[in-house]
Each structure stands twice: as C-alpha cells, then as structure tokens.
Amino acid sequence: MSTNPRYLTKSRFKIGMNCPTQLYYTNKKDVYADSNLDDNFLMALAEGGFQVGELAKFLFSDDPVNEKITIEDLAYDISLQKTKQLLEKGGKVVIAEAAFQFKDFLIRTDIIVKEGNEIHLYEVKAKSWDQETNFWTKRGEPKLQSAWLDYLQDVAFQKYVLLKSMPGCSVKAHLILADKDAINEFEGLNQQFKIRREDGLKTKVEVKNGLSKKDLGTIPLAIIPVDDECKWIWENTNEVFNGTELSFENLIYAMADAYKSDIRVWSDIGKKCKSCQFQVEDETPTMKSGFNECWINAGLKEVDLKKPLIFELWGGLAGGKSYADKWLPEKKYFLSEITEEDVQPKNQKANQNPGLSPTERRVLQIEKSKSNDWTPYLDMEGLRSAMEDLEAPFHFIDFETTMVALPFHRGRKPYEAIAFQYSYHVMDTDGTIRHESEYLSLENTFPNYDFVRALKKDLDGKEGTIFRYHNHENTYLCLIYDQLMREDEKKVPDKEQLMQFIQHITHNKDKNWKGMYDMEDLYKWVLSYYYSPFAKGSNSIKQILPAVINDCGFIKEKYSRPIYGTNEIPSKNFKNHIWINSKSKFDPYKTLPPVIEGFENEELDKIEEMVTGMQDVNNGGAAMTAYSFLQFSDVPSAEKEKIRKSLLRYCELDTMAMVMIWEYWRKECGFATIGF
Questions:
Q1: Please, what are the domains in the chain?
Q2: SS3 label, residue 242
Q3: What are phi and psi of 272, to 5 degrees?
Q4: Per-residue confidence (pLDDT) for residue 614, from 0 to 100
Q5: How open is the CA angle 466-507-666, to the nearest 5 degrees?
Q6: Nearest CA to 415 among 109, 47, 9?
C-alpha cells in the first residue's frame, strides 16, 4: 500500500492562503475537530461543481469515459506514474486529474492538453461568468478583484508547479466557468452526471454510458485565459505569514516547508477566524479546537473564550465595513471592549425606517454585553403602532430555491433561478393559526411556472397581509417574472396572469413597480423592533426563533404541549407535535429529522452561506442540498419519499417560525392570541 508524503497540494495551498496556521490542523481528523470533512460532497450537491468538472471534459474529448482520459488513482506515486506514461505517448494528449510533482509541491490538474512542448492548463470552477465579468479592479493600479483572487491564486500555483515539473515546456493557463450567456440544449443534463459517495468521503460522478460530445450540443461553459492574472500574482508580494511580505514563490516554499515539517506557523487573529473550520461547539469536547489554541496563543485564556467575541456584533447595513478587521489589530477581542463611538458612522444619516437604526442596534448589543443583560429589547409602542396599520388575516410564506451551475433543463442557462417548494401559514384576526397550503416539486421538470400557479391559487384575491422573511421571496419572484417575459405565450398561455400576480405581491426598483399587496418583510420588523442577546448578533430566523422561545414564556409553554397538528392548530405534515422540549434544547429546528440521511440539517444549512456568501438569510441550505441530491443522484423510491416528507416538514417549520415570532409580539402588544 502506498503512503502519500506530506506535499503542499492544491487544497492545502488554498487552506494556507486563507490561514497558514490551519495547515497544522488539517489532515488530523482524529485530533482536531474539522467541520469541513464532508464539504466536497455537500458543495458538489449544492453547486454541481463535480458535475461541471465532468462536463468540461467534453470540451476536449468526444467521449471522455471510453477514451479514459481521467486518472482515477488517488495514491500520489501511482497517479504520477500514470501521468508520465500518458505524456510519453506523444502527439496531442488530453488528461484529466494529471499529477505533477516538484520538490514538496504536488498538484492534480482538472484538465491539461499537451501538444508538442505546449501545455494548456484548465482549472474548472462552478462559478458563473458572462461577457461583463472582469477579474481586475476598474480603478487605480492594476489589481485583481477579491471575489476572484482565490480562484486565480489556485491557477497561479498550479501553473508554477507545472512549469517547474515540465522543463522545456510552455504553459498556458485557463479558467473554465459556467457561462451565464449560454443556453443548455440538452434536456435532463443533470441526469447524465450522477453523484455518489464512495468509501466514506470520496465523491464520485458517474457519466451516463455512451454519452458523447455531439449529444450535448452547445456546452454552457466558457474558457477564459488567465496568464496575465497569474503573472500579476507571481510578481506581487502578500502578507499571509504574520504580515511578512513575501513573494509568491517564497510564500509557497514557506507553506510547503511548514506542512512537511508539521510546524505550526501562527497567523494573526482576524475576521477569517469567524469561519474557522477547526472549532468545537460541544461544551465537553473529545476533539481539540484549533480555533481555541490560536486565540490562547494570542494571549487569551480558555475562560475568556466563553465571553462574546466581536464576531457576534451584528454587521448588517454597515456599508461593507468589517468591524473585526478594524478592531482585532488593536487587540480588541470582546464586545465588552467596544464603545459606542467605535460603531458610529463617519457620516451619520437620518434613520429612514421606524424603530432602531442599524447603529442603535449595534450600540444596544454592546451595552447589553457589557452589563451581562440577557433581557430582550422589544419596542412595544412601535410594534403596536405598526401592527395597527396592517390588515388581517396574516399570511406567512417561505420559499425553497436553488441556482446551480449545471442547468437541469433544455433552454435554461447556468445559475438560473429554480423555485421548487413553498409553505404557507395563516393567522386570523382572533389569533387562530393553521398550516394552509404547500407546494413541492421533486420531478425532473422545470417547476417555476407551476410553482407560481400554485402560489397564485393560494394567495390571489385574499385579503390581509403577506409576510416573508428577508428579500429571498421577493427576489425569486422577480427572477421568475423575467423568465416569464422571455417565454412564448403559446408555451405558457397564462403568462400575463402569472406576471400580473407577481407584480401584485412584490416590488421591483429596477422596473419601477410596487404591488398593492407587496409582501411585508418580517426580517425588517426584527431589525427595527426586537433584539435578543440569545441570538448572538444573528438575525437569521433559525437564531431568532430560539431567542423568542427564551424570551417569551407564553410561546415556550404553549408549544411545549402536543397541540400542533391537531384541531387547535391544523398541519399538513405533523400530528400532535411538540415543538419545544429539553431534548431538543428548546429549539424547534432540532425536533426535525435529517433531510438527507447522514447529515445534520444544521450542517446542510451552512452550505447556503458558503455558496451565496449571504448571512442572516432564511438558511434553506438543507432543502437546497436535498433537492440537488435528488436531481443528481439515483435515489431509491423509499429514500426519495423519506426526503420528500422531511422537506415538507422542514419548510413548514420555516413559516411556523414566522408565526411564532408574530404571535409573541401580538401577545406582548395586547392583540388577540389563542393560548391557555
């Protein structure tokens, strides 16, 4: 059996560029807790990254499977040997997963094409590209945009190793990206690339037997040359190692030496630490926490890490400002060390919305942290006044959606909006609650127009007020509106009616409309009228709901009884359900079974933020990943039915969570509630 040496690989290079200290913690899963152990599989489901990699092979080969262009072996020595053998054949050679080693560096390239002494290197990324995409900043000195820097550094590292390991050859580097301008010509493209896990964490994509390049038509991927970008990265210094300026070449040698020698290079504490994968959440851990060790090295004690860190400070509506970047270099680590002056903007603007301004909300959080005050802030006067302006009944909706690099359907482009599920609760004037309706499509058909038809049937012509949580529902309905605009009326006969309905319940600044029943954003109500220390600065509904339960004895007691899914509160998917109990740590989301067997829902929810980069959203990562799992995998009917039921329960809780928040506020403000 071959034992792989400690090379600096592509993945370890990426880790080191983010934080060199993590090189010491990585590949020690028996010692250090690592929340990213399953990320390859999960991210492949969420983005379709592995499938895009397989599709890209058809850009260079008529039949990549039968032509056997991929080196499957994971052992370094075997993959290196097979790469050498293929290159020695001469002529034009196409290899996927080719291995190249130089000194302490080793790379597995997505695709290379070698002809004579010229090698073309292709790195495949499940990231969108269109004609307006620019890797460079538009102002000042030539500089790469931060959004693209990680991807381009990855290619620059590979090109360096490839040049050094193949002396006498020239190397041209390219990115392959999902082309948002290209239309998929193949129905069921996702069904041609099925994903599964092998041997624990290994991810495998099976390409449908006999699939050829001519079958696919136009492949919706773009090839972008990036040699200039690689050159810029090589020629500019960076400060990854404790602020020491190093050339790119010296930096990668330093990282390779640290990893090979198993030396921990301490990195400065920074905002990157917030998303550190080497954290332990369990209060009695059996695994070490790399996160804690870094902070202790910075001068803190173990007991200090139980205090609220500045990462908890809500940073929303701050104009892109990073408070961590500002204060951590000053060794301000805790919320209690921040003053009101620290969060005051340079140009104070009048609050355009009722209730708390963003700055007032941050000041409130700081003050409560300093005084160890865990009582909630609830602006009952403001809430009561705002509630009186709303018409009952109250309709609560939540969507589950996705955007993937590999279009599922013919005529669609990469990263087009797909809306596959919603849940709908109603609260009447007297406080009566019921789960009114739901929609879920798991078939291999484009669901968006049936989705809107079902929503229109449920909401059109209804009196009252519609609530959503954050911008998600408004954004997706507007995206579907744009899709409908491009459709032929012969294909979608009710196109105009669907578009009118969307306009009726949404707003769109670009197209200058605001519907008569434009949805109310419950998230904005939270920001304006409610703050709970239990949410730890987050305003995601999955943090706000447990906070409400801590803050409201009425809600806690009411839903600790088996009243949900009864005549008292009818449900589509639950019977006599208890939402709140000590076993689930008083968090209703923990009463739900996993949507995908083997993964906790919380783990899947993190995927959405990783894919979109958005925080404080409704966090539908579990549903998004499960939907892609069903689209990209061969799932037995019994397992598919289990996932279907789990998705229905999961989405139902999202709207019930909104109901509980609204019910808490109505109770406190003296409006009608149904209780005991």
A1: 38-236 (no CATH), 271-355 (no CATH), 374-573+652-676 (3.30.420)
A2: coil
A3: -60, -25
A4: 47
A5: 30
A6: 47
**Position 3 confidence tier, pLDDT thresholds 50, 70, 90:** low
- Amino acid sitting at position 597: E
The predicted structure's pLDDT at residue 1: 38
Decide which of 411 and 630 is more confident.
Answer: 411
Tokens read off for 30: 């028996």
| Overall average pLDDT of the 136-151 stretch | 89
Residue 261 DSSP one-character state:
T
Q: How confident is the model over 501-543, as pLDDT tens digits?
A: 999 999 999 999 999 999 999 999 999 999 999 999 999 999 9
Task: Return the C-alpha torsion angle 592, 595, 596, 601, nearest 10.
Answer: -60
Helices vs strands, H then E, count in the chain: 23, 16
Cβ atoms of residues 51 and 206 within 8 Å: no
Separation CA 350–CA 311 (nearest Å): 26
Among 86, 90, 116, 89, which Cα is nearest to 98's?
A: 86
> What gap in Å lies between CA 433 and CA 563, rounded to an integer?
11
Single-letter amino acid, residue 672 = A
Please check whether residue 405 is in contact with residue 179, taking contact to mean a CB–CB distance below 8 angstroms.
no
Among residues 12, 119, 111, 93, which one has the least CA distance to residue 54? 111
Handedness of CA 570, 574, 577, 580 (dihedral sign): negative
Is residue 342 over pLDDT 70?
A: yes
- Per-residue tokens: 565: 């899914």
Angle between helices 248-260 and 227-235 (to 10 degrees): 80
The overall average pLDDT reported for the chain is: 89
| Tokens (6 digits) for 175 | 């990115």
Q: Is the dihedral of CA 222, 223, 225, 226 positive or negative?
A: positive
Q: Specify whether the CB–CB gap between 609 and 470 falls below 8 A.
A: no
**Got the DSSP string for 85-153?**
HHHTT-SSEEEEEEEEEETTEEEEEEEEEEETTEEEEEEEEEEEE-TT--SB-SSSS--B-HHHHHHHH
pTM of the model: 0.91
Q: What is the DSSP letter of 339?
A: -
List 569's β-bridge partners, or say none. Answer: 564
The Cα 396–Cα 654 span in angstroms is 9
The gap from C-alpha 422 to its chain's centroid, in whole angstroms, comes to 19
φ, ψ of residue 376 to 5 degrees: the values are -80, 155
Whole-angstrom Cα distance, residue 517 to residue 180? 32
Residue that is written with structure tokens 């050094």 in the block:
164
